[in-house]
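Render this sequence as a predicted structure.
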Amino acid sequence: MIATETQQLHHRLASSRLASTSVRSRRDEPFRRLQHRASSSLHFSVSSSSTPESAVKSTSTPSISSIVGDYYQFANHSCYYERKGDAKRADVHVIFLHGFGVGTFHYTKQLIGLGSEEDSSRTCAWSMDICGQGKSWPKRREDVAEFEYSLDSWRDQVEYFIREVVLKAAAGSEEKEEVKIVLAGNSLGGKLALYVSATCEDLIDGIVLLNATPFWGFLEKRVSFLTKENDFIVKLTQPYWDNFRSKENVRRLLNLVYADESKIEESLIEDIIAPTENEHAIRAFISTFTSPKASRMSYDKMLEVIRDRNDSIKVAMCYGREDPWVVPLWGQRLKRVVTNAKYYELSPAGHCPHDEAPECVNAVIRSLIGEWFSTAEAASPPKSIDGVSIELVDGSPRNVFEKLDYWKDRYLSSSAMM
C-alpha cells in the first residue's frame, strides 16, 4: 500500500512543473520530480550584527541575534532552517547539510562566520534540518507512515529547499544576473551533497565535503517486515533506542569522534537529545536504518558524474585528520577520482571539523568561494588557527594501510581496462 502511494506520488511530482521565478534562466526549467507538496511561508528580517571575518582567534560565545530561523512545508513535515546574510544581496549561497543525529544547530558557527554582510564575497549562509532530524517533524502518525526517511527522500527535500526557499529568497535583485549555490555537508550530509549535485544537473556550482561518509544504507531494497509501521519492530527496538539516546551514550559517541574532548559543549549534547523526545522519533530512527541505499546511483557513480562535470562544478574537501570513522584513506580515494578537487586536512580535528575547528573550516570555505567565484585573486587560508593546522594535501598515501588501498585501486582500475 505504502509502495503504491509512493509510486503515485513520484508520478505526480514528475509530471508537475515548477511554478516559481528563478534567479537565472537555466533554473526556470520544469521541476521534474518535485512540486507543490510544500508551500513556503517565509519571513526575512535580518539584523546587522556580525562576527569579524578576519579574526584568527576563536569567539567563545558568538552572537546569534542576526540568524533568521523559519519553517517551510515538505511532504507533510514542518521543516526548520536558519539563515544569516542578505539573501537578495548575496552572490553566493552556501547551504550546510548536517550529519545523522544533529541539525541546524551544528552549523551555528558557520552561519556566524560566513553569513556576514561585511564579507566582500557577499555570502549568505544557510543550514537546514533534514526530515526526522532537529526540529523538522510531521504532526500526525499517518504522515510518518507515508514517508521514508532515506537518502532518496532527503535528496528530494534538499532540491526542493534550494529551488523553493533559497532561490526564491534570492530572486528580485537587479544588482546581479545570477547567484552561485554551494552545498557543504558533513558525514551523511556530505554524501547527500554529492547525491543532490550528481542528480540535479546545473543546479549546484560547488561542493565542500566535511568528512563525508562514503556509505549509507545497508540494504539494496526494502525488506517488508523491517518497517517503522511494524509495532513488534518498534517494541524490539525500544530498549536499544532508549540507551542510544541517553546523555551518557551521546557523550561517549562524541568523545570517540572529536579529537579534542574539551570542544564538546554541554549544549551540543542537549541539542542532540532534544529531537529524540518527539513522539515519532523512534519510528524515524527505524526507517532511517532499515531504508535501502540511494536508488538512483551508487557512491562511486556519484563521484564519476561529478568528475565528468568538472567544468561546471567545483569540488573541495576539508577533513579532520583524526577522524576514526571516515579516516584520511576515504578522502584520498575521493581525491583520486576527482583529481582537480582541493583537499585540506585539519589537525587535530575529528569527524566534525566544522564544530571542533570552526574558524579553520570557515577560513577554508571563504578562500574557496573567493577562488571559485571572484575575479580578484583569492587569499589562501592561514597555515593554522588556534593550534589547528590547515594543510593542503595532494592525497598521496602516507602509511601502510593507505598505500595498500592505493595499490588495490590501481590494480582494480588496470584490471577493468583489460
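Summary. The two ends are 47 Å apart (CA to CA). Residues 41 and 72 are 6 Å apart (CA to CA).
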